[in-house]
Amino acid sequence: QVQLVESGGGLVQVGGSVRVSCSASGRTFSDYAMGWFRQAPGKERAFVGAINWSGGRTYYADSVKGRFTISRDNANNTVYLQMNSLKPEDTAVYYCAAPSVSYVVTGMSLYKYWGQGTQVTVSS
Length: 124
Fold this sequence. Notes:
Blueprint: E1 3-8, E2 10-13, E3 18-25, E4 34-39, E5 46-51, E6 58-60, E7 68-73, E8 78-83, E9 92-99, E10 111-114, E11 118-123
Parallel strand pairs: 2-11
Antiparallel strand pairs: 1-3, 3-8, 4-5, 4-9, 5-6, 7-8, 9-10, 9-11
């Protein structure tokens, strides 16, 4: 059974930075892509970005492009979401998710496994 556990997040000021981590277990981590999603209060869950199996390819939603960076450490079964230049509209619960493919995918239905989520609140 694949398990994903997020950590990090919290309260950060506008313009600040925070890194969220996701530790994976239950299958060969380096065989699969990973993704990040977020859900703001009163809104649907939305794609943030994804990274392929090797870390050599990433893809981001337009709303975070140039501010957020996804990376992975296959030796430690961990994927990271580095968030810079944070805005109040970035406030959300952030979820890591794992599809059953090695390449980047954006559709939420393609992600089979989900973490419990971690709150990031950007205050002004």
